[in-house]
Amino acid sequence: MKNKKKVITGCALALALSAATMTSFAAAAYKTPAEAVSGITGKTIDEVTAERKSGKTYGSMAADAGKLSEFQQAVADIHEDRLNEEVADGTLTQEQADAQLAAIRERQAACDGNGTGAGIGTGCGAGGCSGTGMGYHRRGNGLGYRNN
């Protein structure tokens, strides 16, 4: 009986450790779109920031470097991490998070990186606090980073 308890405890511990390991591997490589562009294109954060201030979108910077799909994946990973945190906090249900992530990926499929979007009122350029990237061109209402 004691051996059986030890085996069960050991299996539970191994399962918990493997779950924690998988979670850490699933984390996004970058925390912001600017970091993603910098890491993907090899530019410094200062260079990316200067280009962004001049009006160029993060998506167009990545597209110019031939790395738009990598940038889009990195941004989706950033959003997925944020959504997972909101699910863990109880702010969103898993179904709501899945729907938001599906909407992000759907918009990315039509995105060319220029920030104007494929349809009326949608875009996938800037991201950031204005919500203009991957959002609905209204401050804080995009799937970018909101000012909550």
What does this structure look like?
This protein is 59% helix and 3% strand. The chain is built from six helices and two strands. Helix 2 crosses helix 3, helix 4 runs antiparallel to helix 5 and helix 5 runs antiparallel to helix 6. It is elongated and about 65 Å long.
What's this, in brief?
The protein has helices at residues 2-26, 33-41, 45-53, 58-64, 68-89, 94-109, and strands at residues 123-124, 133-135. With 148 residues, the chain is mainly alpha-helical. A hairpin with an 8-residue loop joins strand 1 and strand 2 (133-135).
Topology:
Layout: H1 2-26, H2 33-41, H3 45-53, H4 58-64, H5 68-89, H6 94-109, E1 123-124, E2 133-135
Antiparallel strand pairs: 1-2
Helix pairs in contact: 2-3, 2-4, 2-5, 4-5, 5-6
The oligomeric state is single chain
Main pleated sheet: 2 strands, antiparallel
How confident overall, as mean pLDDT?
74
SS element count, helices: 6
Number of strands: 2
What is the helix fraction of residues, given as a range? Answer: 55-70%
The assigned structural class equals mainly alpha
Strand content: under 5%
Q: Order the strands across the largest sheet as they lie in space.
A: 1-2
Poorly predicted residue ranges: 11-25, 118-143
